[in-house]
Amino acid sequence: MEPTLTDTAILVRSLRKQQGSFALHDLDITVPTGLVTGLVGPNGAGKTTLVKSILGLVRCDAGTISLFGSESPTDAAVHDRIGVVLDQVSAAPEWRVRSIGGYVGLLYRRWDERRFRELLDRYGVPLGNRVSELSRGQSVKLSLAIALAHEPELLVLDEPSSGLDPVARRDLADTIREFVLDPGHTVLFSTHITAELDDLADHLVVLAGGAVAYEGGVDELHERFAVARGAGPLPDDARAATIGARHDTSGRWEGLIRTRDTAAFGPDVVIDPATTDDVVIHLAEQSRTTRTEIPA
Amino acid sequence: MSTAIIRFARFDLSTTARTQPARVLLPLLFIVVLAATLPAPGLGIVVGAVIAAVSASIPFQGDERGRLDTLYGVAPIGRTAVVLGRYVTMIAFGIAAVGVGTVTAFVSASLRHQELPWPLVATMLLAAVACVGVSYAFQLPWFFLLGFTRGRPMIYIPVAIVAVAGFIAGRVGWLEGIGLADVLAPAPGVAALVLIGVIALLGVSAAVSVRVYRRREL
């Protein structure tokens, strides 16, 4: 059933975008309200291009993007409801942390300076430092404080955890969990570190080669897919049921399978539950070799 | 003027002045020094105009260093407000630069016990408005289209045009025998025509800037 706009924060339909030799192909994506949606895929899969298209930072060649029911991704009223954390903080390197609210707050109608200061204090970002003096983790926390200081309903994060240490990644995950405690709040979290989504995301979009390879619930993904591992050549009947099979140097093979196809494999093949990482790796491999969408 | 434009202009002016003081104050200081040392004090107004004309890139440089274009893109401000707010910023800077040049010219003339006739000041100010207005009208769309790094060659074009025009005027002999004291006040009709022309040009320029910046990928 087509999702309705009231339960959907972001609705992308038939999105196309060509950038040099790279292209997003007819993407259909739904980001449900109140959930954490993970946008995963290998480097170059199109995650950042998709996020930038959703935010109106780049123009799509075809298709529609609806944010809270508005089909204008550059609409200022819509952006009032969105907090954004990109891979690098958008702040001049010479700005001091304590002054940033005074500058950036001018661009937001609902800026809450007290909340901004509280978040900085909680995240331990040193107020007296210049932006250029912050560590990678502190920069991400500063971006989060900026994103959350105007009480957004939708938080969009593009690769925020790249280069973060485990403690900073845990803090980031805690912030996201706390944000979605409000049922009206939604998160779109793009990352290539899929492990961090396993106990954070409710909904998953897997991008590979500029196309959607999977979209659905995280639990459903784990129920739907498994990993088959075996030695020697991959039998023809098993090959048809295997997605993105890869051989290693010792002649062992590994591929993603649908759990319903488990019977196609003999007793010599080991079937394990698939992690999100497994799904991304094999769907990307399949996409790379066939350039086609994976059937459900 | 919409509140979004005012909010952006306040942001732009405060961040440019407070976080890039050297880039803003040095040109103004340069105007003071040059205007005070030139033999004819009235030329201080011209210096202010030329410095203002070549300074259009300053805020765009700040945008690029701080990835502020992305901040503008995700903030609830709208690209039209960004463009029009930036025009307000640049016009304010142009007024400040020409104002500093004018004040320095008067102070310098007073200290040297020289006369600075009002017709000369009026003509210089009109020329300054035309110089700054035309320069911004051509440069700003360029920077909105390409950003600072790719648009940098445009910084030098106004200087080159002034230099070439001065060279040609000198070779042709247009400036021979003309002293600053001979300059007449501009006719009211001419002054009105210049002002209306500059405003119209800036209006067209802003429309072009809005169009190109809306299409720009950030």
Low-confidence segments of chain A, ≥5 residues, pLDDT <50?
292-296
Q: Strand percentage of chain A, roughly?
A: 25-35%
Multimeric state: heterodimer
Mean pLDDT of chain B: 86
Describe how the helices and strands are arranged.
The complex is a heterodimer of chains A (296) and B (218).
Chain A: E1 8-19, E2 22-32, E3 36-40, H1 47-55, E4 62-67, H2 76-79, E5 82-85, H3 97-104, H4 113-123, H5 136-148, E6 154-158, H6 166-179, E7 186-191, E8 203-208, E9 211-217, H7 218-224, E10 225-231, H8 236-240, E11 242-247, E12 252-258, E13 270-273, H9 276-290
Parallel strand pairs in A: 3-7, 3-8, 5-6, 6-7
Antiparallel strand pairs in A: 1-2, 1-4, 8-9, 10-12, 10-13, 11-12
Helix pairs in contact in A: 4-5
Chain B: H1 3-19, H2 21-37, H3 43-53, H4 58-65, H5 68-74, H6 79-111, H7 118-151, H8 157-172, H9 188-215
Helix pairs in contact in B: 1-2, 1-6, 2-3, 2-6, 3-6, 3-7, 4-7, 6-7, 6-9, 7-9
Description of the structure:
- The complex is a heterodimer of chains A (296) and B (218).
- Chain A is α/β, with parallel strands linked by helices and 296 residues long.
- Chain A has helices at residues 47-55, 76-79, 97-104, 113-123, 136-148, 166-179, 218-224, 236-240, 276-290; strands at 8-19, 22-32, 36-40, 62-67, 82-85, 154-158, 186-191, 203-208, 211-217, 225-231, 242-247, 252-258, 270-273.
- The radius of gyration of chain A is 21 Å and the shape is elongated.
- Chain A starts with 7 loop residues before the first strand and ends in a 6-residue tail after the last helix.
- The longest helix of chain B is centred in the middle third of the chain and has 34 residues, at 118-151.
- The radius of gyration of chain B is 18 Å and the shape is globular.
- Chain B has one domain (3-215).
- Chain B has 218 residues and is mostly helical.
- At the A-B interface, helix 2 and helix 3 of A face helix 1 and helix 5 of B.
